[in-house]
Design goal:
alpha+beta; Metal Binding Protein, Guanine Nucleotide Exchange Factor, Chain A; 2 domains; 6-stranded antiparallel beta sheet; 3-stranded antiparallel beta sheet; 5 helices; 12 strands; 28% strand
């Protein structure tokens, strides 16, 4: 069950207007409009991986534009009738933040810079530790959510198999009591922390 999040405290005023109130930043004003470093773009609300620099292109629209998301299931699309127009809104599939709009004729995801956070490729694969100091039932729930989100992780506790295929912990985790330490990639760290905060 999702918890109620105070987004006004979590985000800046401008970020809140975009992500939660479905605003739009002025064209050619965003940090990532004319920005082409190699890396990955995360949702500023929850850390969900959204787009790769490999799929970013110069559209001339005034907003960062991408051909496709990192994974289709990481975003959701819905019809938008605001301002007397019919458009396709792009939302984060995890925290339901407003990201921008999709234009099918151009295969273009037009995204607000303020809706994203950029992680360079050289940092994206770095490892961050996450401590799971929860009950067996809570750890089983965390395991299920991480698997569902396709997040790869390694268990670092001695006496437990270190690496599990496809990032799965396995049934042995349910027999453990106490602290478990897992390692995740930096590009996934914020999303893991958001999911833990939101489901427990």
């Amino acid at each position: 069950m999702k918890k109620e999040i105070n987004w006004e405290e979590r985000l800046s005023e401008e970020e809140y207007k975009i992500l939660r109130l479905k605003g739009t930043e002025p064209p050619f004003s965003g940090q990532y409009d004319n920005f082409y470093e190699e890396g990955i773009y995360l949702c500023r609300g929850c850390g969900n991986s959204l787009f790769s620099s490999e799929d970013k292109f110069k559209s001339g629209s005034g907003w960062p534009s991408f051909r496709k998301p990192v994974r289709e299931e990481n975003i959701s699309l819905q019809e938008d009738h605001s301002y007397g127009m019919v458009r396709t809104e792009v939302l984060c599939a995890v925290c339901e933040a407003h990201l921008g709009h999709y234009f099918e004729a151009e295969t273009r995801h037009c995204i607000n810079s303020l809706a994203m956070e950029f992680i360079p490729d050289e940092q994206a694969e770095e490892i961050e530790d996450v401590i799971l100091n929860h009950s067996k039932e809570e750890i089983a729930l965390i395991k299920s959510v991480l698997d569902q989100e396709g997040i790869t992780y390694v268990i670092k506790n001695e006496g437990i198999q270190d690496l599990f295929g496809a990032g799965r912990i396995g049934t042995g985790v349910n027999q453990l009591v106490g602290e478990i330490k897992i390692a995740v990639k930096k590009k996934d760290y914020r999303l893991v922390m958001y999911l833990m905060e939101n489901i427990l």
